[in-house]
UniProtKB/TrEMBL annotation:
Belongs to the diphosphomevalonate decarboxylase family. The gene is mvd. The keyword Coiled coil does not apply. GO terms for molecular function: ATP binding; diphosphomevalonate decarboxylase activity. SUPFAM superfamilies: GHMP Kinase, C-terminal domain, Ribosomal protein S5 domain 2-like. Transmembrane segments: none annotated. This is diphosphomevalonate decarboxylase. Its EC number is 4.1.1.33.
Length: 341
């Protein structure tokens, strides 16, 4: 039996969207305008422990040993409230999170963070949730977190309401996900100036390119799914690159523009193109930050990484890279609370 005061720990891995989520149909429930497709990464993850029943009248949260405050704290409390409501408890919680993802640098820390929080909080509250329910719960913290419940390739169905908006694993008959790698070019590990939440709101409201991107999006997703079905990395890479470039185009024409792409990002994008001309499999994607993620074949990842570091040494001397492969889904560790007899 689990009582509400036993702690639970969960680990969730970051995911990078190959076909993006950018824009909400419902801000409160986090229902996206478009469905999205992602790859969960082994090297980037968050481990979170939640314990309900602490003294005091407020939740407490730390991330990498620092007390979480402000908006980030409020988002954690909101998710805990959903869990409390569902479990019928009012206890305050202690949340301890450790990240291997540079926070808020467009490296999907909110995806792994809220997936781990959803998993740990639900387990600590004694809730037995299915993966689909966990995906829906994580979505309420951060949309992209819905996909981090699953390993490998995951699709988040936009849906139209709380019940129908969830992620699930993508059928992968050729085992393509095992052949994929992502070389993450960390050009800037600092915090981004415009949050993805604000950036997407502004884009939806003001960019003349937003609707055309949404209209093209369904075709991008269908093409990507078809590519996965056929184990066709070239097609998957090409459509992922096109979809991300289109998304950043919508940001550029927002008023005022949402600017995540820096000169260094542009240099990295050009380097990826050069690699392709050299015959290496490499396609670029970017999120709500300046960093560039390069989709490649697992067997070529080290070579792609070495070439990119070489090519970018002058323009981005501070460059750090992470070579990541397909990672696992949410892992929940609930201490065994049965009494010995
Ligand atoms: C560009 O999931 O961080 O990474 O739902 O407002 O928390 P909220 O946004 P978030 O947005 C991620 C946007 C993206 C694309 C993607 O991951 O699909």
């Amino acid at each position: 039996m689990t009582d509400a005061s036993s702690p639970a720990t969960a680990t969730a891995h970051a995911n990078i969207a190959l076909i993006k989520y950018w824009g909400k149909a419902d801000d409160e429930l986090i229902i996206p305008v478009t469905s999205s497709l992602s790859l969960t990464l082994d090297a980037l993850y968050t481990t979170t422990t939640v314990r309900f029943g602490i003294d005091g009248d407020a939740d407490e949260a730390t991330l990498d040993g620092e007390v979480v405050t402000g908006k980030a704290y409020n988002r954690i409390v909101d998710l805990l409230d959903l869990v409390r409501e569902r479990a019928g408890i009012t206890d305050r919680a202690e949340v301890v999170s450790v990240n291997t993802v540079p926070t808020a640098a467009g490296l999907a820390s909110s995806a792994s963070g809220f997936a781990a929080l959803a998993g740990a909080a639900a387990a600590a509250a004694g809730l037995e949730l299915s993966d689909r329910e966990l995906s829906r719960l994580a979505r309420r913290g951060s949309g992209s977190a819905s996909r981090s419940i699953f390993g490998g390739l995951a699709v988040w169905h936009a849906g139209t309401d709380d019940d129908s908006s969830y992620a699930e694993p993508v059928a992968d008959p050729t085992g393509l996900s095992g052949d994929l790698a992502m070389v993450v070019l960390v050009l800037d590990a600092g915090e981004k100036s415009v949050s993805s939440r604000e950036g997407m709101r502004r884009t939806v409201q003001t960019s003349p390119d937003y609707r055309p991107w949404v209209e093209a999006h369904a075709g991008h997703l269908a093409s990507a799914m078809e590519a996965v079905k056929n184990g066709d990395l070239e097609r998957l890479g090409a459509v992922a690159e096109e979809n991300a470039a289109g998304m950043h185009g919508t940001m550029a024409s927002a008023v005022p523009p949402v600017e995540y792409v820096t000169d260094q990002s542009r240099a990295a994008l050009a380097a990826v193109k050069t690699l392709r001309e050299e015959g290496l499999p490499a396609w670029a994607t970017m999120d709500a930050g300046p960093n560039v993620k390069v989709l490649t074949r697992a067997s070529e990842a080290e070579r792609v990484d070495a070439r990119l570091r070489e090519m970018l040494a002058e323009v981005a001397p501070q460059l750090g890279t992470v070579v990541a492969y397909s990672g696992p889904g949410l892992e929940i560790t609930r201490p065994d609370t049965r009494e010995a007899n």
